[in-house]
Structure formats: C-alpha cells, structure tokens
C-alpha cells in the first residue's frame, strides 16, 4: 500500500486584480516586487541618516543626504530591473526568447535573475558616486553598496514570495510534510509535492540581510567600509548555491546532465568577489587606510 504524503496544496491565482474596462492586470508578483523595493528604500534611508553626525554638518546638510539616498533608491529600479531581466533572458530562457522576442518586455510574468540585479546595483553605485561624491563625501561606492547589502533581504524575500504565487522556480519532488503541490506550475510539476525552494531562498536572504543590517547599524564604524558588501556577496552566493540542489533544473547554457546548474555557476564570481573584497578590506584596515 502506497504511503500518503502530506503536502500543502497551492491553488492561489497569480493575478490579484483584473480590470473589467481595460486590458490591465495586477499580479501578486508585481505587488511584492514593488513593496520590496519600497521597504528596502525606507530602511536604507533610515540607516544612511543614522551616520550623519557633527563631522559632516559643515560639509552638507542632513536633508541633502536624505534626498541623495532617496534618489539612489528611486533610480535603482532603472538599473536593477533591466539588468535582472537581461540576465534572465540570456542565462535562463535564451532559446525561448529567441522564438518569442515580444515576451522579453513582459516582466510582470516573472523572470528576473538576481545576479543581473546585483550587477545593476553596482553599475548604479559607480555612476551615483561620480555625481555625488564631491558634494556628499559620505556617499562613497562602498558605503552605498554596504547600504544595499544591509537591506537587500526584504526585497529578495518578497520577490521569492512573488515567485511562489507565480508558481515558478520550482523545487524538486519531495516527501517532506512541508512540500507544496502547485496547481498550475510554470515548469510542469503540477500535482507533485515539491520543495518550497522559493521560501528556502527567501528566508535565507532575509536572515542574512537582517544580520547585516544589525551589524551595519550597531558596529559599522568598527567594521569599516566594504565588509558588509563582502559578507552579503558571500552569503548570497552560498544560499543560492545550496538552494540549487533542491531546485528544478533551469537554464539552457548547461546540459541536463551537468553537475552544476547555471545558478551555481553564476554564484562563483559573486563568491570570489566577496572573498577578495573581504581580504582587501582586512589588509587595508590593518594598514590604517580605507577603500573607496
């Protein structure tokens, strides 16, 4: 007699609201993505302003710093979204989008690669620093990246919840009691209990970011610039690398029989960057010099 496996049936629609007058839909993915950016922006502003002290008052006002961080948060969407989408198209759906190029712009259907989003943030920080560094010396490249490293978790967590509602980024089949049975899975695993890998990743990112936020808020001056970014890169890479082992194979760059998934391969550069940055920060701090 076959044992009955307890599992959670996921029958929620990915659409939250549909207009009866216009061809418009509001998806859960879009709501969670927007909410994640908004909450991360609020946290980054609060965190950044906490370092405004008497040393900086003769150089710039607190309102100038607030406006600058708000602008960085506001324009981040213009860098994160295109780069995350581009990375997804290239590494996870190249053959599909070659046949259906009109689908590339339909971001509301899901399909963003976190590695591309990180690259977008780095690009924005470089451009932003060149514009604001002289006016607001506090806003160095590493300070901005440290802010991002401390608050990224809330956005990453909510995006993974959006993936859950979209029934995408599906885990491998499991007999564990918290397995999820999707009713309309994007990757053809409907009716089979699978690992809720979206929650594994999302909770991992949230916990990592929460720890880094605490360290940034309480001990940033003792740590020095760059460490939060280094820890974030290493942590993100490790969480993603481990999550891939219980995730359905994605991407067209490597074969189905490959020992590593494309997500794991893309995590290597991020991990190496984090380690190198951490070592450089340590050596610079020993010499009493700071990074950018």
TrEMBL record:
**Entries under Pfam families matching the protein:** LGT
Quick one: which pathway?
A: Protein modification; lipoprotein biosynthesis (diacylglyceryl transfer)
**Enzyme class per UniProt:** transferase
Gene Ontology, cellular component aspect: plasma membrane
Does the record's keyword annotation contain Repeat? no
What's one GO MF term for it? phosphatidylglycerol-prolipoprotein diacylglyceryl transferase activity
InterPro entries in the cross-refs: Lgt
Q: Membrane topology for this entry?
A: Multi-pass membrane protein
Q: What is its EC number?
A: 2.5.1.145
Localisation per UniProt entry: Cell membrane
Chief subcellular location: membrane
Binding-site residues for a 1,2-diacyl-sn-glycero-3-phospho-(1'-sn-glycerol), renumbered to this chain: 160
* Function text: Catalyzes the transfer of the diacylglyceryl group from phosphatidylglycerol to the sulfhydryl group of the N-terminal cysteine of a prolipoprotein, the first step in the formation of mature lipoproteins.
What family, per the record? Belongs to the Lgt family.
Q: What is this protein called?
A: Phosphatidylglycerol--prolipoprotein diacylglyceryl transferase
What species was this sequence derived from? Candidatus Chlamydia sanziniae
């Amino acid at each position: 007699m076959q044992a009955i496996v307890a599992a959670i049936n996921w029958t929620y629609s990915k659409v939250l609201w549909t207009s009866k007058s216009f061809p418009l839909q509001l998806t859960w993915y879009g709501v969670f993505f927007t909410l994640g950016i908004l909450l991360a922006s609020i946290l980054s502003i609060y965190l950044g302003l906490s370092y405004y002290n008497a040393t900086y008052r003769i150089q710039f006002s607190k309102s100038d710093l607030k406006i600058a961080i708000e602008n960085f948060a506001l324009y981040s969407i213009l860098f994160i979204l295109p780069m995350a989408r581009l990375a997804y198209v290239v590494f996870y759906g190249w053959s599909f989008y070659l046949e259906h190029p009109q689908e590339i712009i339909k971001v509301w259907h899901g399909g963003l690669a976190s590695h591309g989003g990180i690259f977008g943030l780095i690009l924005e920080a470089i451009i932003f620093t060149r514009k604001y560094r002289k006016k607001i010396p506090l806003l160095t490249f590493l300070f901005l990246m440290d802010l991002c490293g401390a608050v990224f978790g809330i956005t990453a967590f909510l995006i993974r919840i959006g993936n859950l509602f979209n029934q995408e980024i599906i885990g491998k089949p499991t007999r564990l009691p918290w397995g999820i049975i999707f009713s309309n899975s994007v990757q053809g695993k409907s009716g089979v209990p699978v690992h809720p890998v979206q929650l594994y990743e999302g909770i991992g990112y949230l916990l990592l970011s929460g720890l880094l936020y605490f360290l940034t808020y309480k001990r940033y001056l003792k740590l020095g610039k760059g460490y939060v970014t280094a820890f974030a890169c290493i942590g993100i890479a490790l969480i993603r690398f481990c999550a891939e082992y219980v995730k359905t194979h994605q991407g067209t760059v490597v074969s189905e029989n490959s020992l590593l998934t494309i997500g794991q391969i893309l995590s290597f550069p991020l991990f190496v960057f984090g380690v190198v940055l951490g070592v450089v920060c340590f050596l610079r701090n020993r010499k009493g010099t700071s990074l950018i």
